[in-house]
Design a protein that fits this description.
By secondary structure, this protein is an alpha+beta fold. It is about 35% helix and about 20% strand. A 4-stranded antiparallel sheet has the order 4-5-1-6, covered by helices on one side. A hairpin with a 2-residue loop joins strand 2 and strand 3. The relative contact order is 0.20.
């Protein structure tokens, strides 16, 4: 069992599939590296989006995709065709298991090369809206796909209340979190350590 309540999680290779080249053409990977210093009264927190790929709301994300293309000044005819092709990639997620064929009806397929872009697009828009609408948002918020490192000010709002507000945004998008212990916080494959000067080191 991969996660509690999820006995099966289909992860298939889309290489060679009818939509592989189209999906690959549309993919974009952006990596950001930043340094920060923890201020007095702040704590280190890592957030995780539960099963992000299968939980991404495709209709809303296609709308976000259309907005992004419009901002780049593309012709409306090109945008409509691009969205149509993207929709095909997202809605033709079929796989074979034990001699039977299945189709994934919700979220993005893990193995489709377009899925990371779609998931990242959704999360980017999600974060932008949250920053605009929430009275408080952490000043440090670094995300890698569905894993987030943040510096959280507990004087502004309780952590539980903040997470509850995040979890109320979309029915399928749920966050969990872990706080630092003994001035240390595991994040991805490194251990983030807060030193005596409140600066962050990595082990």
């Amino acid at each position: 069992m991969y996660k509690p309540g999820k006995s099966v999680r289909p992860i298939v290779s889309a290489i060679g599939s009818p939509t592989y080249n189209l999906s690959k053409l549309s993919s974009l990977t952006i990596s950001k590296i930043s340094n920060c210093k923890k201020e007095e009264g702040e704590i280190l927190v890592s957030f995780d989006v539960c099963s992000l790929f299968p939980s991404v709301p495709i209709p809303q994300t296609l709308d976000y995709h259309r907005e992004l293309l419009e901002l780049n000044g593309l012709d409306d005819k090109i945008i409509k065709e691009y969205i149509r092709l993207t929709s095909i990639c997202m809605n033709q997620n079929c796989f074979q298991y034990n001699g039977e064929y299945f189709q994934q009806h919700e979220g993005t397929a893990m193995g489709n090369s377009l899925s990371p872009f779609i998931a990242n697009l959704f999360k980017s828009k999600f974060e932008t809206e949250v920053k605009d609408k929430f009275e408080y948002f952490p000043r440090v918020w670094f995300r890698y796909v569905d894993d987030i490192f943040a510096v959280f000010d507990t004087k502004a709002i309780s952590l539980d209340n903040f997470v509850a507000k995040l979890n109320n945004r979309f029915p399928t998008i749920k966050f969990t979190y872990e706080v630092e212990h003994n001035e240390q916080l595991p994040f991805l494959d490194v251990l983030v350590i807060r030193n005596s000067e409140n600066k962050l080191e990595f082990d």
